[in-house]
Amino acid sequence: MTNAVKKIVRSYFGKIEISMDGLMEIMEKTGNADVALDLLLGTYETPAIPKESEWAGHLTTFQSYDKWEDKVHFSYLAPDRENIWIDRNVDKELITPENYKEYSRSYTAPNTKMVTVNTSIEPVLHTSYCSLNDWREAAIRLQDKVQ
Question: Which of 105, 106, 100, 52 has the alpha carbon at shortest distance from 79?
Answer without folding.
Answer: 100
